């Protein structure tokens, strides 16, 4: 029997000082932005300059100042404090939703790609159908279907983000599994008599890790936008929770009186997504994947 | 011949996909466990209101019967009656679809320019400052949520420098100049959102084509650079961008929801949001189904175009 030389790709697990110096610039900038956002979000859980729901923190609509960098809204709530408190909500919802989509999508996609046959056919048709419904429409319809009892609950948002993402991730995972299934070590594992689950999760999954990691990062970049859009349209997290999309929507009436209440949180949201995008771009280059174009 | 067979199988799969979409929409909206009427009206609805809604939605029939009735009606062009307004959905939808089609065409025309021009500039100036500057701008725009970009443009051109109307409320009474002016901001927002995805793909594929042998040959033959670019390189570089354009059409259908909302444009997107807010199930089903039909049709067209534009694909698939 010939020696199997292919080693499972584990490059992603080794980040050290040398690697950091050798990493592409965009990745570093992205990573720094993301770390700053994470620290800001953690701080926002424990401390904000004013209470996030505290009315009368200052003169309503008085614009930006040192005390109120993002101004004050109609009822005198400090927008910066709300923005700060909302940071961990946005990050956690994005992360949980993407994670749910990744777990569901990866499991189904890898199984579908490896098993093939009618199971694959059925899965692909359902995935195709789900992708054919514009994702925002799909998300909104699911929120309506969940009914008024669940509306505005974080659990529902996480679930919806996961369900919108899952079919898109299934496709990526399936393509990776179909490619890896032809390798020698999978054939060897089959000859050893390993079961389907064991092959999928112990042979195929580790080798698809690079592809999946980039996909995770890409989906994570888009999650704050999706969650923000739901909030903006009034179908997201329930007020007065300061989710950023909801805040931008609420303060839009103040666009003429105090634009900073809209563009402050807007800038914050955009910088988070820029951080994610740069990070994803750098990550995909470092892991030898094709640069990703989004969508 | 193989092109025809390919076409036939693609069409067949598209129809199958749409059938599945109809099942999915029906399942999500009407066949989830629990009482549909209670879910729509909330727990504190009166028994009378619940009863009325049940009869409006034919909820006394089994789900399977209701599904096939809906599907049959849909295929015959009967979309049912809107619960909120009591009007036939086809009457409500018609003008909205026309408005959104107008907006989309306008946006698409701007999109072509916004995608092609920067990509050509980048590819012909590879590695130079202008290439990097456009890359950075693209990345920033790519990271802007559509609702934020729409709000920024609204602020810039309707509040700070008031040259365009903030609200795109058009009606049959508006003249075509008014309609066009009202559509500028929403159309530009949509075009930018679509273009940022296409620019990257188009730039990369154009660079690849510009390095190929046949472009070299065309240059060595002594053709003018513009002739090489537009007659030889561009048609071949556009194929990968076609896929993005199909994806973009999918985005456009979702994007109009937000952009129309921001500018209060009376189109398909605002209708969907209204339907969702009023929990008008027949109207929701009809609008979502139609958006899926458009998406699938757009992908089909993009696939067929890709085959026709690149002979290599005719045999390899």
From TrEMBL, chain A:
Keywords: Cell membrane, Membrane, Plasmid, Transmembrane, Transmembrane helix, Transport. This is ABC transporter, permease. Residues 87-280 form the ABC transmembrane type-1 domain. GO terms for cellular component: plasma membrane. Its main location: membrane. Signal peptide: none annotated. It is a multi-pass membrane protein. It is found in: Cell membrane.
TrEMBL record, chain B:
It holds the Pfam family BPD_transp_1_N. It is found in: Cell membrane. It comes from the Bacteria. Keywords: Cell membrane, Membrane, Plasmid, Transmembrane, Transmembrane helix, Transport. It is a multi-pass membrane protein. The chain crosses the membrane at residues 7-29, 101-121, 133-163, 183-202, 241-263, 283-309. GO terms for molecular function: dipeptide transmembrane transporter activity. Residues 97-306 form the ABC transmembrane type-1 domain. One of its GO terms (cellular component) is plasma membrane. PANTHER family: DIPEPTIDE TRANSPORT SYSTEM PERMEASE PROTEIN DPPB-RELATED. Belongs to the binding-protein-dependent transport system permease family. This is ABC transporter, permease. The lineage of its organism: Bacteria, Pseudomonadati, Pseudomonadota, Alphaproteobacteria, Hyphomicrobiales.
């Amino acid at each position: 029997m010939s020696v199997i030389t292919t080693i499972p790709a584990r490059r992603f697990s080794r980040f050290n000082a040398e690697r950091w110096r050798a990493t592409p610039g965009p990745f570093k900038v992205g990573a720094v932005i993301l770390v700053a956002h994470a620290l800001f979000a953690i701080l926002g859980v424990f401390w904000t300059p004013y209470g996030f729901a505290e009315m009368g923190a200052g003169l309503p609509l008085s614009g930006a100042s040192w005390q109120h960098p993002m101004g004050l809204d109609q009822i005198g709530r400090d927008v910066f404090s709300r923005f700060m408190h909302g940071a961990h909500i946005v990050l956690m919802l994005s992360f949980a939703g993407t994670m749910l989509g990744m777990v569901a999508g990866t499991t189904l996609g890898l199984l579908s790609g490896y098993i093939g046959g009618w199971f694959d056919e059925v899965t692909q048709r359902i995935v195709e159908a789900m992708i054919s419904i514009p994702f925002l429409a799909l998300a909104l319809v699911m929120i309506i279907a969940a009914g008024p009892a669940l509306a505005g609950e974080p659990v529902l948002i996480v679930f919806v983000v996961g369900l919108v993402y899952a079919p898109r991730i299934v496709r990526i995972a399936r393509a990776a599994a179909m490619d890896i299934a032809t390798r020698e070590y999978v054939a060897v594992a089959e000859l050893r008599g390993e079961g389907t689950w064991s092959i999928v999760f112990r042979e195929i999954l580790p080798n698809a890790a690079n592809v999946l990691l980039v996909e995770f990062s890409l989906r994570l970049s888009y999650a704050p936008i999706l969650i923000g859009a739901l909030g903006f349209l009034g179908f997201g997290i329930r007020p007065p929770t300061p989710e950023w999309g909801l805040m931008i929507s609420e303060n839009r009436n103040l666009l003429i009186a105090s634009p900073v209440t809209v563009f402050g949180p807007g800038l914050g949201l955009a910088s988070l997504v820029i951080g994610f995008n740069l990070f994803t771009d750098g990550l995909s280059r470092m892991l030898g994947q094709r640069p990703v174009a989004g969508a | 011949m193989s092109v025809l067979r390919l076409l036939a199988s693609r069409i067949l799969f598209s129809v199958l996909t749409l059938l599945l979409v109809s099942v999915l929409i029906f399942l999500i909206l009407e066949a989830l466990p629990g009482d549909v009427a209670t879910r729509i009206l909330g727990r504190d609805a009166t028994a009378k209101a619940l009863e009325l809604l049940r009869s409006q939605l034919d909820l006394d029939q089994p789900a399977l019967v209701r599904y096939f009735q809906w599907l049959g009606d849909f295929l015959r062009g009967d979309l049912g009656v809107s619960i909120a307004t009591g009007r036939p959905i086809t009457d409500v939808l018609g003008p909205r679809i026309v408005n959104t089609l107008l907006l989309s065409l306008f946006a698409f025309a701007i999109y072509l320019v916004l995608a092609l021009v920067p990509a050509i500039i980048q590819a012909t100036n590879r590695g130079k400052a202008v290439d990097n500057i456009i890359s950075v701008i693209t990345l920033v725009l790519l990271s802007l949520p559509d609702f934020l970009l729409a709000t920024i443009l609204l602020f810039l051109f309707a509040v700070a420098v008031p040259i365009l109307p903030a609200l795109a409320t058009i009606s049959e009474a508006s003249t075509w100049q008014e309609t066009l002016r009202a559509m500028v901001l929403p159309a530009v927002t949509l075009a930018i959102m679509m273009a940022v995805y296409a620019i990257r793909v188009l730039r990369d594929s154009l660079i690849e084509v510009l390095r190929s042998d046949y472009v070299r040959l065309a240059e060595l033959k002594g053709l003018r650079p513009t002739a090489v670019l537009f007659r030889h390189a561009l048609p071949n570089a556009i194929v990968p961008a076609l896929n993005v354009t199909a994806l973009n059409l999918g985005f456009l259908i979702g994007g109009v929801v937000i952009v129309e909302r921001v500018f209060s444009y009376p189109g398909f997107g605002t209708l969907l949001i209204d339907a969702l807010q009023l929990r008008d199930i027949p109207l929701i089903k009809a609008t979502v189904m139609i958006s899926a039909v458009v998406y699938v049709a757009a992908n089909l067209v993009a696939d067929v175009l890709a085959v026709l534009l690149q002979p290599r694909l005719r045999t390899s698939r």
